[in-house]
Design brief:
This protein is mainly beta and about 120 residues long. About 0% of the residues lie in helices and about 55% in strands. Strands 2, 4, 5, 6, 9, 10 and 11 form a seven-stranded mixed β-sheet that branches. Strands 1-3-8-7 form a four-stranded antiparallel β-sheet, with no helix packed on it. A hairpin with a 5-residue loop joins strand 5 and strand 6.
Amino acid sequence: VQLQASGGGLVQAGGSLRLSCAASGNFVGVNTMTWYRQAPGKQRELVAHISSSDSTIYSDAVKGRFTISRDNAKNTVYLQMNSLQPEDTAVYYCNAVFVILGSRWGQGTLVIVSS
């Protein structure tokens, strides 16, 4: 089972990016899917979380600017990031909790927001 994250890049402050994280391999299903981020010199923090029933949780730092969604047919979770600010600069990681298999992490995708 693998998680492949993509969509990171360099963007100016105020801009937008859309991250994707696709699950592949042999699995029965995916329960929760979560985006985390880790900025240089800081601990990894939760950004947004979506359950199997599409209920969502956001950190206060991104609430109102970021939107998490998922496409169960594609086993993919998305993070639409709007009004990006320099403090959003980080490596963004996706995590999925698979039925039976448990938690898996993606490789991370780098987001750089220039001022």
